Amino acid sequence: MIAEYPPQLLAEVKAKTADRQLTGFTPGQGPINPDLMLVGEAPGRHEEKVNIPFSGASGQELMGFIKSIGYSRSTVYITSVVRQRPYSIKKVKDKKTGELIEKHPNRTPTKKEVLAFAPLFDWELATVKPRLIVPLGNTALQRLLGRNANIGELHGQLLHQKIQQANANHDGYQMSSTKYWIMPMYHPAAVLYARRLEPTIKDDWQKLGREIKTLKK
């Protein structure tokens, strides 16, 4: 378990996101040197409240997939490429009073926000040293493999390649010097919105279970 993040990296994130609609801070969670590092997009409303990654509705789906291949929340490392909840501001009419009220629903983080957190994520990956990285959904996948990577094309495939890391100036990306084992997966929320994907996602997780056993030999 990571005790705490480097203060200078946290300060850098704070400075770069000061004018952004981001709230809270949910740290990564899990053991060092795990078989699997699961990488999500960003915390949602529930994660912001309890400070536990993937603890909302999609998290329940994820725990089921993890359990199906013999792992648990305590045996994998769970994090996200953006560590604060991105929100938008919407004015809606209250159904009872008719008054305009302000709501802050979740949204997808921007590429600039993902880049702002890049050095922190790089440090976390280097510290955790997982055997295999599992990006969940396009945001996490494109942070690792570039903007042209697509979860619809790459889900369930075992990859061994270099990944994007923050460059020396932290204003863009460069490719890593070493290769990583990666298996992209659909985000578990996809099951909630498109039940037709459930058989595919379950098959992908079973494939992941087999691949990680092979890598451990």
UniProtKB/TrEMBL annotation:
Keyword Acetylation: no
InterPro entries: UDG_Type-4/5 (IPR051536), Uracil-DNA_glycosylase-like (IPR005122), Uracil-DNA_glycosylase-like_sf (IPR036895)
Domain of life of the native organism: Bacteria
UniProt domain Uracil-DNA glycosylase-like: residue ranges: 27-206
Cross-referenced CDD domains: UDG-F4_TTUDGA_SPO1dp_like
Sorted UniProt keywords: 4Fe-4S, DNA damage, DNA repair, Hydrolase, Iron, Iron-sulfur, Metal-binding
The keyword Phosphoprotein appears for this protein: no
Coiled-coil region(s): none
Full protein name: DNA polymerase
Annotated organism of origin: Limosilactobacillus caviae
